[in-house]
TrEMBL record:
GO cellular component: mitochondrial inner membrane
Organism encoding this protein: Diversispora epigaea
Entry keyword set: Electron transport, Membrane, Mitochondrion, Mitochondrion inner membrane, Respiratory chain, Transmembrane, Transmembrane helix, Transport
One Pfam family recorded for the sequence: MWFE
Protein name: NADH dehydrogenase [ubiquinone] 1 alpha subcomplex subunit 1
Keyword Nucleotidyltransferase annotated: no
Record has Membrane as a keyword: yes
């Protein structure tokens, strides 16, 4: 039985919409949310600690640096400093 040509136009529109939404979802997840890097899965404690260090060092958990010395701002940007200050004020 032949396919009527009137059904091809809605099929093309539906296929196009699925393609557009899939492309936008991929762009949102990988490019904008993770700064162009693929998302990270199955993170253990080491990965989360390194992401926190990168966030404090570079301002984002997805950027990394190859500099051997940290900037001057990193010396006062410590998690321990914030937790001890929080404990002292409670």
């Amino acid at each position: 039985m032949p396919v009527p040509f009137e059904a091809l136009l809605p099929l093309g529109i539906v296929t196009l919409m699925f393609g557009v939404t899939g492309t936008l979802l991929h762009a949102t997840k990988s490019h904008y949310r993770h700064e162009g890097k693929p998302p990270r899965y199955n993170l253990d404690n080491w990965d989360t600690e390194m992401m926190e260090r990168d966030r404090r060092l570079m301002g984002s958990p997805h950027r990394q640096t190859s500099e051997p010395l940290a900037s001057k701002e990193f010396s006062t940007n410590s998690v321990w400093y914030l937790t001890t200050k929080k404990i002292l004020w409670q």
